[in-house]
Known about the structure:
Structural class: alpha/beta
CATH topology of the largest domain: Rossmann fold
Strand content: 15-25%
Strand order of the largest sheet: 1-2-6-5-4-3-7-8-9
Distance between the termini: 44 Å
CATH class of the largest domain: Alpha Beta
Amino acid sequence: xxxxxxxLKKWGDDELKYWIALDLCTGCGFRAARLLxxxxxxxxxKTFWHASASELRDMGGYPYVLGWIDETLIEKFxxxxxxxxxxxxxxxxxxxxxRAYPLAHPLYPFTLRxxxxxxxxxxxxxxxxMDELAHGVGVVGTRTPSNYGQKLAKDFARxxxxxxxxxxxxxxVGVDSLAHYGAIEAGGRTVAVxxxxxxxxxxxxxxxxxxxxxxxxxxLVLSEYFPGIKPxxxxxxxxxxxxxxxxxxxxxxxxxKASGSLxxxxxxxxxxxxxxxxxGRIDQPMSEGTNRLIADNMAQMVVNLDEIMKSLxxxxxxxxxSEPVVLELFGSxxxxxxxxxxxPVHFDQLTEKTxxxxxxxxxxxxxxxxxxxxxxxxxxxxVRK
Length: 385
């Protein structure tokens, strides 16, 4: 099946279990991009999973696409699949209360799909829908924040949550946990990307937070690891690319010069994500990393939420819905919205300042009104909502 066909076609358990089985075929060299080519060419993973050695050789001969399927890989794959029962994996997934989203699934985050090394399968535990990750910001920082860092982490996460932005972090102690709690307190959405199966709480001291993430309608625990897989040291730097890759930006709050948060920041920078950093005192070790990111032009210095929202071309609307919705503005809509404020501006003034003629300007203002972020007053005056 090609990605532009019926989005949810063939995504029952019968197809899903073979993606999961292939995800657990460790040592076979099945990188995500390669298996996506298989899926594009052969329509189902079930066909690939059950292919004979001769059929696999024929696949390997398909010009310019699957030449990586050589005799060594075929032998490894056939031996490995004999050890794996896809039906058993599905049963384990359901017992753990975990959902799975392979790379080709329509609900797999589009931002993550386009990074250099996307996860082949994402495993999710919690109630938040995957399509609510569209506007997300990663928030990371030191595990031992100062009082200043603690306040910033909760305040910024709370404001992001109130603005309708999904807060993404790693559930580690320190800034990560504070960011999750800030979003939760604001009634906002928050996602923890973990370095183990999503059914495992790590660190164990975060059980109250884990419970909130998995039980709250706006929480989610996300991982590239199958349920039951334990955390190991090497998995943490690997998962950082997902923290930065799922969102559209990354905010770094207090990080020392050797902080793992700087790894996440570099990955975000390489993924063409907007990186933000909050400056700190130059004589404080916990500010050395964030200040260096700013000095090296790897991060934009920010001191409030408005700077983040404006840099991303995001605005917040609370109308017509009852909860905040993040809107992304481009072109004339963005230009006109920036000219509006709490003080009324007349239509003729907007025509002069924007250079737009009456027709296009009227259409733009109508769109802003429908989005709930502008209001027309009597006499053709307009204000920002």
